[in-house]
Design a protein that fits this description.
The chain has two helices and twelve strands. With 200 residues, it is mainly beta. The N terminus is likely disordered.
Length: 200
Amino acid sequence: MKTLITLCAAFLFTGCVLDRERPPDGEDPPEAATLELAYLSGHFGSYWDCPEEAYQPPGAADESNGVAASRVADCGDGDDCGGPLNCEPAQLTIQIANIGAELVDGIRVREIQVLDADGEVHTILPVVSVDTIELDAFDGVVEAGETATLRVDFRGPRSLSDLLGERVQEAPVKIIVEVEAQNTEELITPPIHSSPIVVT
């Protein structure tokens, strides 16, 4: 029997249930497995000292080497350059709760979409890794009655204002979650920021 996957996008204490499909006439209704998705926290990272690791829009001029070379030049003989670097990957923390009666597998965080001021998709940022809160690689399985807290690392932009326009300091993202390579659901976050620059 084909399993109906019903997903929910939940912000903090808000929840919802979406009915995705109805069985054809004459067939038994499918047994429902229900997942709930919730956003916990997130940021666009900091790539000031590692611009080569940031997302670059297609066709954009790559200034990574110049920025890196400038930092090396600033760290001449006798200079103390051993402080913390402004280099932190973009990251989201989400929860996936299986409130159904059966195990659900094949869960994959497929991509991160940056939304503009009109709520339209502006840029798709690639996912780098998805790990559990214990820093183990997520295997795509959530047992019945269990909740998985996931850390999603992705390639954030070097500058959000360069991506979305001058003076833009925050933006929401849409998380695309795929289940068993068939069904997809969306989780839209509140606006998130880049990480602050650490003075070195």
